[in-house]
Amino acid sequence: MSLKLKAPIGIYGGTFDPVHYGHLRPNLELCEIFALDHVRFIPAFQPPHRDEPQTSAEQRCEMVAQAIQVEPRFVLDDREIKRGGPSYTVETLKSLRQDYPDNPLCLLMGMDAFSGIDRWYHWQELLNYAHIIVSQRPETDFHASEQWPTAIQTLYQEHKRARQTISDSLCGTIRLEAVTQLSISATDIRNRLKNKQSIRFLMPEPVINLIKYYNLYT
Question: pTM of the predicted model, to two decimals?
Answer without folding.
Answer: 0.94
